[in-house]
Amino acid sequence: MSKISLxxxxxxxxxxxxxxxxxxxxxxxxxxxxxxxxxxxxxxxxEGEIADRYVQLINPNIDIPxxxxxxxxxxxxxxxxxxxEESIVDDLLAFIGNYPLVAHNINFDNNFLNKxxxxxSRDPQSNSKYDTLQLARSVLFEQPVFNLGALSEYYNxxxxxxxxxxxDTKNTGLIFLELIEEVSKYPIKIxxxxxxxxxxxxIPNQKxxxxxxxxxxxxxxxxxxxxxxxxxxxxxxxxxxxxxxxSVENILAEEVFGASGLLSKIHPNFEHRVSQEKYAEVVxxxxxxxxxxxxxxxxTGLGKSMSYLFxxxxxxxxxxxxxxxxxxxxxxxxxxxxxxxxxxxxxKALDVPLKAVLLKGRKNYICKTRFKWLISxxxxxDRADLEAIIPLIFWMYWTKTGDxxxxxxxxxxxREWLRSxxxxxxxxxxxxxxxxxxxxxxxxxxxxxxxxxxxxxxHSLLMADIVQKGLLPDYKSVIIDEAHNLTKSAYxxxxxxxxxxxxxxxxxxxxxxxxxSARWNNIINSIGEKNPDLIGLRxxxxxxxxxxxxxxxxxxxxxxxxxxxxxxSDKSYQEQLILRNISKEYAPIKTEINSMRxxxxxxxxITSSLKKATLELDSDxxxxxxxxxSLDRGLExxxxxxxxxxxxxxxxxxxxxxxxxxxxxxxxxxxxxxxxSLFMVMVDISSILRRKFFEK
Length: 696
Description:
Helix content: 40-55%
Structural class: alpha/beta
Number of helices: 31
């Protein structure tokens, strides 16, 4: 191990981390109440270098499962004559002392440590806690995975003996040093935002952020961190505005894709393919020479993306009369590859001007205003939520797009519901509300799209534009890559769904007492002193939401009772229960369905009254834009839920197919109750596709 620099030693001293203990447990399983420790490693780092270590195999007095042996290599025979927990607990606690504790996913190891102390009547550990997993998700947010092996490889650390406590602990301690240095490069505005959000909590790394904030204040640093970024994160933009010296009107396909063409001069792995050259010619002819419809099939490796991009760029010369060319990819991954790799390459070869935009559905983009609301009410979030949000704060320091898919650290925490609390939303993201944050990322992108000559989207957005016109600018030409997948995206747009989890989530958004409603509920509280009718309506809505939740629970429980026999918990994959006659199928629970519908209709009437009362106080919607937007969105949600329930359980439409999905979810020790979801979708969408898309 190389000697640590003086600068890093000083940083550790300032952060009270000159000496810390990295530790790791290997265990018989994941449950600290029932599983036991089979190996412990604790390594003391002093001024960034290993000073001492405590490593011990432990006899758990229970069998080690085969799966654990396969992962760790630790067998029952290896621990048979080793010390027990009782005999090592004091030595381990003495080694740990009061030093700061560092682990990868420290919540897991700390839970086992606390249970160890509890079982043998030792005082619980109050050491400050640091977590390399949470830190890595935050400052290395763009990395695809964050397990210890991946981070060890990222920092060129040895991987031999992975999943054995000693090597894992050593790597954890060394990775911690790298992450400390990385987080210290961020300015006070980022660290203060985190400290404001996690104040009063006991999440790992809290002391690190507090100490780092104090250090920056002490140094008087405002615009920079303790040190400078040696390699700033260069996140891409989703707009591409190129100036070029050539006119694409005068360039032919053979001059680009020929053996000595323009592409051969700039592409390091160029290979002349006659079929690619021919493909480009035919696409160009279909788009620009004799505009019409073309259906082409090409094998993998042809280079078709470059070929049809050439035709799209050539068509940009007709932008004023014909509008943009839309390019629809099957997946967001392919969309990104096309925009960030293939398009810049061919533009470099052509040296022509072009305005292009990468556009996804609005729910992919973060809303600065909604994010600000969320972190300003941290009491509405639990510890896991707070830890998941921290990576977004670091990512927002760098992002040019606001596309949350750039922040793997956020999604790695598996708190997916948070995304719907901060993404761009038609009910909230308006000019009035978001103007204070210089507008939303999505709003600016939509404006840029109206000037773009090429717009790269995915199938889902292309089909969504059929259902909800105006998502895309008017266009007369489209290139559909992997067109055989288009119908799946079309069916998804014409699918109706009802599930207990989805409906409950929407009811929570309507509940004034729920944490996500805190902001608009507080507005009603503030203006309700002079307008008691608002308070009365709000309280009435609260009661009706609770009743609706009860009716939902009763409805889904009765449905489970009726349909339990149709699903087998022993099957790995459940069959979809096709409903041939929905009147007959839902007859036994018609009372519960009607009760659910009536509850939602009462909520709709109350929300409408709240909206009317708010408009009487603020007719131009300028004083309380957040309240207006929340009530508008609430009405939209209720109407959508009522419509879905009626469509799924009311009069059967022979043009649609109806079915029920069942899923048995597994808990720690037993299976959870059967979760059911109701679905319907059009049997044949061809007429809609023809009328609303292909004929256009």
